[in-house]
Amino acid sequence: MTTTTTSGAGRVEARRAAVRAGLTRGWLETKYSFMEAGDVIWYLAFPVIYAVVLLFMRGSTVPGTGFALGAMVLPSLVGMSIALGGLTGAASTIAVDREDGTLLRAKATPNGMIGYLVGKILMFALTTAVSLLALVIPAFTVAGDLRLDLRTAVLLIMIFVLGMVATVPISVALGSLFTSSAQTGLLFLISMLLIIPSGIFYPITALPGWLQVVGQAFPYYWLGLGARSAMLPDSLAAAEIGGSWRTLEMIGVLGLWAVVGMVLAPIVLRRMARRESGSTVAAARERFMTKGY
Amino acid sequence: MRAQAPPTSPGPAIDVRDLRMRYGTKDVLTGVSFAARRGEVLALLGPNGAGKTTTIEILEGFRMRSAGEVSVLGQDPARGDEAWRARLGVVLQSWRDHSRWRVRDLLGYLARFYAPYGTTDVPRPWDVDELIDVVGLTEHADLKVQKLSGGQRRRLDVAIGIVGRPELVFLDEPTAGFDPHARREFHDLVHRLADFENTTVLLTTHDLDEAEKLADRILVLDGGTIVADGTADQLARELTTQAEVRWTVGGRRHVHAVEDGDPTAFVRRLLANDPDVTELEVRRASLEDTYMTLVHRAETAGGRPSAGGEQTDRTEEVQA
User: Which region, left, alpha or beta, applies to residue A178 given φ > 0 means left and ψ of -120 to 50 means alpha?
Assistant: First the structure.
């Protein structure tokens, strides 16, 4: 047997090299993505829509208070963008990468799957971060009502990282379950349904009890709450469940999602990848050439 | 021939015994056995649907077999780990994966995975610029993959397949869709691999000419089993037992097909019995003729190969 590669230390070193390669991959893919007009439009479309909505809300206040309505909604939108980007984005790319043979290349490379996953997570983190920055910029128009200080920045970064770690692995697992890239629309639809009880557009405390439970089971609510805790004055915590930002609970629930995702994703991905071979990619190509999808 | 000792078990690069594959009720492989020595270039030749791709995907570890024993570089591909994977090269037929990547970026990225698997005997990976030069893509190194022509893209596929300096390379229908020039360049590349790097190569093709040009040894796969195994010369003798004897008597042309064995006895008899024979011609079927018969039969009947025993010698009179 060889000296380094089959020993435990060698295996660890090989995996580390794969993680480093994956970081390069994530960086390169982000760079390539920002060189495509279509991708850039996609990243900036939602922030621009939000910005327009916020503009229309200027001058309106939360009923019964002097608090700007736009300032109230913005943090929830930040939370939603993190969750939506993380949950749907990775799943749809996985489905495409599987059809065009990208995953098969990863499989043919030693530790290639590690590199692929790390690359995907980094790319989603970077592109979502750009979208978020674009989203937060209009917030300065209502800055008087929002908290925008060091604490805000630290908390937002923490929520962003936690949100990515909690959603991207689950998304990868879901994307692996799809049999064709056309099915990713379904995931988008489910996400939209889950946003209803998330407290993002409508206060969760006004919902029936069972719907509050459903809402609190998914990352949408917690990421929205986290973003509110970062950007809203402490006095507004009174409007939340329990009258508190519940930061520890947030870390707990998102952490649980992260753990479940980290455990599930490699298993599901590996199971899916096991079925990939030159002939499955050839079959997908055949289908694409004849049917056009 | 072997300058470097192989880093692991010195046995054959590939050892397949009674490999079987069944999809549902359909038997695709009905007992395939062969071995490849280290440094050997082996062509798996056969008509479409003979089971070539299934065989190679099992060896690559991409497909689970139904039965049989398989050893690739000393390991069972069904349980191959990443260190085993690092010693293999799989040349995939790219389609549109990594289409936004630049050629040098993609090779550089993939090369990094192999660095921890380098040994003093086998430094891994290839130097990326050197490899780009070897496959003739230096001018295109900064192009996006999607801008490459079909032939350039296949050369990139080969570069990706060998970037980790594999001991064994799999090529599945490597020149499908190539023009003659691209095919020629590709053949040179495979020769180079085998000669300079002492790499074992297993390629599949349905093109006899390609198999003859590239391979040290040809395996003919038909009906889910190996029907012939040897060099092109051996195959010509082994597979083509048929010979034709043509002659003229009294202005009439005759053809006699000798189905099995040596036509000498027939000719001796013919000459002894008929002193008027002129324009005698004995022609052995070429390997190509025999292979074409095989392909034709696979395409029309899909039946099992016959040993050629049911036909007996016969003579026909033909128009001159």
Answer: beta
Reference A203, options A177, A221, A217; nearest CA is A221
Tell me the whole-structure pTM to 2 decimals. 0.80
Domains of chain B listed by start with CATH number: 14-235 (3.40.50.300), 240-318 (no CATH)
For chain A, say whether B60 makes contact (Cβ under 8 Å). yes
Higher pLDDT among residues A256 and B194, named by residue: A256
Q: What order of strands is seen across the sheet that includes strand B217-222?
A: B88-91, B168-172, B200-205, B41-45, B217-222, B225-230
In the beta sheet, which residues pair with residue B169?
B89, B201
8 Å CB contact of B97 and A109: no
Q: Best residue in B9, B52, B53, B62 to probe A by mutation, most A CBs within 10 Å?
A: B62
- What residue spans define the domains of chain A? 8-291
Q: Which long-range contacts (CB under 8 A, 24 or more apart) does A212-220 make?
A: A212/A241, A216/A241, A216/A253, A218/A194, A219/A83, A219/A86, A219/A87, A219/A163, A219/A166, A219/A167, A219/A253, A219/A254, A219/A257, A220/A79, A220/A80, A220/A83, A220/A84, A220/A191, A220/A194, A220/A195
Looking at residue A268, its pLDDT comes to: 86
Quick one: pLDDT at residue B100? 93
pLDDT at B318: 63
Would the CB atoms of B116 and A5 count as touching at under 8 Å? yes
Closest CB to B101: pick one of A32, A108, A115: A32
CB-closest option in B92, B96, B113 to A111: B113
Question: In angstroms, rounded to a whole number, what is the distance separating the alpha carbons of residues B23 and B63?
Answer: 12
SS3 sequence of B139-202: HHCCCEHHHCCHHHHHHHHHHHHHCCCCCEEEEECCCCCCCHHHHHHHHHHHHHHHHHHCCEEE
Hey, are the CB atoms on B113 and A4 less than 8 Å from each other?
no
Q: In the block, which residue shows the tokens 């009439």?
A: B252
Q: Specify the pLDDT at position B9.
A: 52
Q: Which chain A residue lies closest to B83 (C-alpha atoms)?
A: A5
pLDDT for A239-256, tens place per residue?
Answer: 788 888 888 889 999 999
DSSP string, A232-259: S-GGGGGGSGGGS--HHHHHHHHHHHHH
Is the CB of residue B249 less than 8 Å away from at least one CB of chain A? no
Q: In chain B, which residues have their Cβ closer than 8 Å to the Cβ of A100?
A: 95-97, 99
Distance of alpha carbon B186 from alpha carbon A166, whole angstroms: 47
Distance from CA of B309 to the nearest CA of A (A): 37
pLDDT tens string A52-98: 887 787 777 777 777 777 777 888 888 888 888 888 888 888 888 88
In this structure, of A106-120, B185-199, B293-307, the range with the lowest mean pLDDT score is B293-307
**CA pair distance B126, A229, nearest whole angstrom:** 52
What pLDDT sits at residue B165?
A: 92
Most A CBs within 10 Å, among B87, B109, B162, to test the A interface: B109
